[in-house]
């Protein structure tokens, strides 16, 4: 029987208060590592758990921590990626609003492991409630000695600061986030050097997602074996799935990594709206290639979705039913990427602008023969040719829509109208 | 605290003053409602950074407004999850009842209407942000009730000069 841990306080009254968090065993993991473990032992524990980053890329967290040089003449930084801009995704907001101490404890344990004394939580500026609750939680944690100088009587000093974003999706890309934290336009940096070697202020830096950090105290308390026992061995652990779109019970669900997508949508989220049937599902935020209904028997984990031609991404699951035009949805997705392109590199900046114009024309019934081939040519020009993954995400999404729902695009062009209007 | 004091307090969190430009702009915008040129220059002067660094940030991030917005900035999400829950109908309704199109401000400067990219609250789509608050599971009746509450709040809050009040406060 699966027991949710990340969402255990979500529906508890005052779940965002320190007293609630402590009553549920909160901050015992921090006390335990300070008392019983060296930083290297904590890194090893996270490596053994095989925790993979929950921000989208799925990189092994312990390995990322292990890249931080042990001896450095510069301070080390921990950055929490709480920018959460991927359409369809809202998991980090709910953790920060309703159980912010879970994140703070994760930050403290993680900072101890990598040798950081300062963490910046980069939160999107729209999340005002989350920002206020996290601010209050940081103050509470300071008062009780979980943060500050000599945490819980140890020689570990640690401060957490909130840095508010201001409405740019690209800040979710880790090097763009660092640029933004340094007070510049958020544009991605060329890698290498990777942040673990030269990140914030050219210092060794680890960047982890909110959900990733929230997993860490549970791994400390329950052990790596417990974590690896949930879901597939290659991407284990509890996972937060965001369900939205044309489904009966949109919401945030904590279930094992690897749960079949069909089970997630039909059993947990209640299936399609009355009288409708599911046509397609975007499994991991709009960067993740769309999956047609017949492909829903796929496990929701990094490797299974990659093998199926999509990706877990942020696990922002968007359900689309048979009343909806896939050309319209695809156009809106590419409009999003075009709007959010930071403008640094030409394939993304110009290619997406061009793709949006073609897609809008097709949706309006003004498509021309050759338009679909032109879109495919644009995808080829964008994919793999951009500084960061924004262009790749857009190209993958467009390619998948053209592959799985080509008949809808063709109908628009041939009938010179949208058949859904 | 004065704006200068708030900015200086925020700047103390960073080893480099340039990092404090975004927090400073958010503080300044809350104070002034938007960020005209003289405010941007004041921020640069308080932090002791190049003015162009402040300008380039104020014009890159969508939450910074260099032009005035109405007392209530209605920011309707029209990204995929909200679109699938008929946010387009809500936009048409808002445009009709306010007598403006998206991007515009009502002549009484009470409402500015915008569409925005994902607000990260897709579980309660369709969603609209007004000032600091999210309003979800919206339909036309809830939109109308919300507009009535905002108009009433404006009446109570002002009595004097609505246009002088910062947005969303």
Question: How would you portray this structure in words?
Answer:
The complex is a heterodimer of chains A (about 425) and B (about 170). Chain A has about 425 residues and is α/β, with parallel strands linked by helices. Chain A folds into three domains: about 20-230, NADH-ubiquinone oxidoreductase 51kDa subunit (Rossmann fold), CATH 3.40.50; about 240-320, Ubiquitin-like (UB roll) (Roll), CATH 3.10.20.600; about 325-415, de novo design (two linked rop proteins). In chain A, about 45% of the residues lie in helices and about 10% in strands. In chain A, helix 2 (about 30-35) packs parallel to helix 6 (about 100-115), helix 5 (about 90-100) packs across helix 7 (about 130-145) and helix 15 packs antiparallel against helix 16. The longest helix of chain A is centred in the C-terminal third of the chain and has 18 residues, at about 345-365. Chain A is globular. Chain B is an alpha+beta fold. Helix content of chain B is about 45%, strand content about 10%. Chain B contains seven helices and four strands. Chain B has helices at about 5-10, 20-30, 35-45, 50-60, 80-85, 85-100, 140-155, and strands at about 70-75, 110-115, 130, 135.
Largest interface: A-B, 53 and 42 residues
Strand content of chain B: 5-15%
Strand order of the largest sheet of chain B: 2-1-3-4
What is the count of structural domains of chain A? 3
CATH architecture of the largest domain in chain A: 3-Layer(aba) Sandwich
The secondary-structure element order of chain A is: HHHHEHHEHEHEHHEEHEEHEHHHHH
DSSP summary, beta strand count of chain A: 9
The end-to-end span of chain A amounts to 46 Å
What is the oligomer described by this structure? heterodimer
Overall 3D form of chain B: elongated
Shape of chain A: globular
Biggest beta-sheet profile of chain B: 4 strands, mixed
CATH topology of the largest domain in chain A: Rossmann fold
**What is the assigned CATH homologous superfamily of the largest domain in chain A?**
NADH-ubiquinone oxidoreductase 51kDa subunit
Distance between the termini of chain B: 17 Å
Strand content of chain A: 5-15%
Low-confidence spans of chain A: pLDDT under 50, at least 5 residues?
none
What is the helix fraction of residues of chain A, given as a range? 40-55%
Computed CA radius of gyration of chain A, to the nearest angstrom? 22 Å
């Amino acid at each position: 029987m699966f027991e949710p841990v990340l969402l255990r306080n979500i529906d508890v009254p005052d779940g965002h208060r320190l007293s609630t968090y402590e009553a549920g065993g909160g901050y015992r993991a921090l006390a335990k590592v300070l008392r019983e473990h060296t930083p290297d032992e904590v890194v090893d524990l996270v490596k053994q758990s095989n925790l993979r980053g929950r921000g989208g890329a799925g990189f092994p967290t312990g390995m990322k921590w292990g890249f931080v040089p042990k001896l450095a003449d510069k301070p080390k930084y921990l950055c929490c990626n709480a920018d959460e801009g991927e359409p369809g995704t809202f998991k980090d907001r709910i953790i920060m609003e309703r159980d912010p101490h879970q994140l703070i404890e994760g930050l403290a344990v993680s900072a101890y492991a990598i040798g950081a004394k300062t963490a910046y939580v980069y939160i999107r500026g729209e999340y005002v409630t989350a920002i206020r609750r996290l601010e209050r939680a940081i103050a509470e944690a300071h008062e009780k000695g979980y943060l500050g100088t000599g945490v819980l009587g140890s020689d570990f000093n640690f401060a957490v600061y909130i840095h508010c974003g201001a409405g740019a999706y690209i800040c979710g890309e880790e090097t763009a986030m660092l640029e933004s934290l340094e007070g510049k336009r958020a544009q991605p940096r060329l890698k290498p050097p990777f942040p673990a070697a030269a990140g914030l202020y050219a210092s060794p830096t680890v960047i982890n997602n909110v959900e990733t950090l929230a997993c860490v105290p549970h791994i400390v308390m329950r052990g790596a074996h417990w974590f690896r026992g949930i879901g597939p061995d290659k991407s284990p652990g509890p996972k937060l799935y965001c369900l939205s779109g044309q489904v009966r019970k949109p919401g945030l669900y904590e279930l094992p990594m690897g749960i079949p997508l069909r089970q997630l949508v039909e059993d947990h989220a209640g299936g399609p709206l009355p009288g409708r049937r599911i046509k397609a599902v975007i499994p991991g935020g709009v960067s993740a290639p769309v999956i047609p209904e017949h492909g829903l028997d796929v496990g929701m984990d990094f490797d299974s979705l990659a093998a199926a031609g999509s990706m877990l991404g942020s696990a922002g699951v968007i359900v689309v039913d048979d009343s909806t035009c896939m050309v319209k949805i695809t156009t809106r997705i590419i409009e999003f990427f075009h709007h959010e392109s930071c403008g640094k590199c030409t394939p993304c900046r110009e290619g997406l602008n061009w793709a949006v114009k073609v897609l809008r024309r097709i949706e309006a019934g003004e498509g021309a023969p050759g338009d679909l081939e032109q879109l495919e040519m644009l995808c080829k020009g964008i994919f793999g040719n951009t500084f960061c993954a924004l262009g790749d995400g857009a190209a993958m999404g467009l390619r998948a829509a053209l592959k799985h729902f080509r008949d809808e695009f063709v109908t628009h062009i041939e009938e010179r109208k949208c058949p859904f209007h | 605290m004065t704006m200068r004091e708030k900015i200086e307090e925020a700047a103390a969190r960073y080893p480099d003053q340039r990092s404090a430009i975004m927090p400073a702009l958010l503080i300044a915008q809350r104070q002034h409602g938007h960020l005209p040129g003289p405010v941007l220059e004041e921020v640069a002067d308080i932090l002791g950074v190049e003015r162009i660094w402040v300008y380039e940030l104020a014009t890159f991030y969508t939450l910074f407004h260099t032009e005035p917005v109405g007392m209530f900035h209605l920011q309707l999400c029209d990204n995929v999850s909200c679109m699938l829950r008929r946010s387009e109908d809500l936009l048409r309704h808002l445009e009709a009842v306010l007598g403006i199109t998206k991007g515009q401000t009502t002549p009484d400067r009470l409402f500015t209407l915008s569409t925005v990219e994902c607000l990260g609250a897709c579980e309660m789509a369709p969603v609209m942000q007004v000032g600091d608050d999210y309003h979800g599971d919206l339909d036309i009746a809830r939109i109308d009730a919300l507009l009535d509450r905002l108009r009433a709040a404006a009446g109570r809050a002002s009595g004097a000069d609505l246009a002088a009040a910062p947005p969303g406060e």
